[in-house]
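User: Here's a structure from my thesis project, written as structure tokens. My advisor, Dr. K., wants to see whether a designed sequence matches the one we expressed. Can you design one independently, without my sequence as a hint?
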């Protein structure tokens, strides 16, 4: 870096744009977290003593725009939800789905929406020492999943994807699809196309850094989607699928990406498409690379051991 750019060596980095970095050089482990950010959030919204939740969103929860029980001050809800994406996109993929869903209802927030937003804070209250850890010598690996018509208002599906490198997450997302899928296979196929674009970008980035891991393997839990990916022929049941999503077939044929079947129970992206019950959510969190810190004191709050 110093040979190419004019930089100053300010010593070992410990904090960066709100993130705290810790290293165990003997074990070759790097840990990132945002303890100060969510401690400040809990204090700002009077949740420092709240009872912790085991999950950021109740399993099976379905938020909707009912236009009833509107909040007298919707700005307060928008302030809370607007403070969460920084966490969900830097060191806490475990709250990405909940934050993505809540972000859809900020125009006219209702009491249910504010209650769901506070449940995310209750989850953070019991999981203050979690972050993302890197250290295992593992290549770039992708996983993709989708629900089907989970959005109650628009009946659109939600894509969830996560890429891990060296044992920790480097890119993830929980995004509502731009079109309405008519089947689970189509929803999964659209999600696969979205993840393929991300895989190609990450592959180019790693190549620029001198790392060439070959084709990016990506796990998918829908057999019908895998059949579409590997079948270049159009059928009567898929001819309505937008041509933009068929690009995934070309990149599979070229060897840039590969898809393989991964059971839903082992899918790390499952928690990015729906609210899961406690045991399933913990399995998702572990698979996504969210882990406890390495003994760092994160402030005056003590996490709930049960979380």
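Assistant: Designed independently from the structure alone:
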């Amino acid at each position: 870096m110093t040979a190419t750019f004019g930089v100053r060596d300010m010593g070992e980095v410990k904090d960066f744009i709100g993130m705290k970095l810790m290293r165990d050089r003997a074990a070759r482990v790097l840990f990132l977290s945002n303890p100060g950010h969510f401690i400040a959030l809990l204090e700002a919204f009077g949740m420092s003593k709240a009872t912790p939740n085991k999950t950021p969103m109740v399993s099976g929860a379905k938020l909707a725009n009912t236009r009833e029980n509107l909040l007298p001050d919707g700005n307060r809800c928008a302030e809370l939800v607007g403070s969460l994406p920084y966490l969900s996109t830097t060191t806490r993929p475990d709250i990405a789905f909940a934050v993505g869903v809540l972000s859809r209802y900020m125009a006219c927030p209702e009491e249910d929406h504010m209650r769901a937003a506070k449940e995310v804070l209750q989850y953070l209250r019991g999981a203050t020492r979690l972050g993302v850890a890197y250290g295992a010598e593992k290549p770039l690996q992708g996983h993709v999943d989708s629900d089907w018509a989970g959005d109650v208002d628009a009946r659109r599906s939600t894509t969830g994807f996560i890429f891990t490198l060296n044992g920790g997450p480097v890119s993830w997302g929980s995004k509502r699809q731009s079109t309405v899928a008519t089947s689970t296979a189509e929803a999964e196929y659209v999600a696969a196309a979205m993840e393929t674009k991300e895989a190609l970008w990450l592959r180019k980035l790693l190549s620029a850094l001198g790392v060439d891991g070959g084709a990016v393997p990506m796990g998918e839990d829908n057999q019908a989607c895998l059949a579409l990916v590997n079948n270049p022929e159009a059928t009567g049941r898929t001819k309505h699928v937008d041509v933009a999503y068929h690009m995934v077939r070309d990149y599979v044929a070229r060897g840039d990406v590969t898809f393989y079947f991964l059971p839903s129970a082992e899918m790390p992206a499952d928690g990015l498409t729906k609210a899961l019950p406690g045991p399933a959510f913990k399995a998702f969190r572990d698979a996504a690379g969210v882990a406890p810190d390495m003994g760092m004191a994160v402030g005056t709050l003590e996490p709930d051991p049960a979380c």
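When you compare it with your expressed construct, this may help: The chain has one domain: 19-292.
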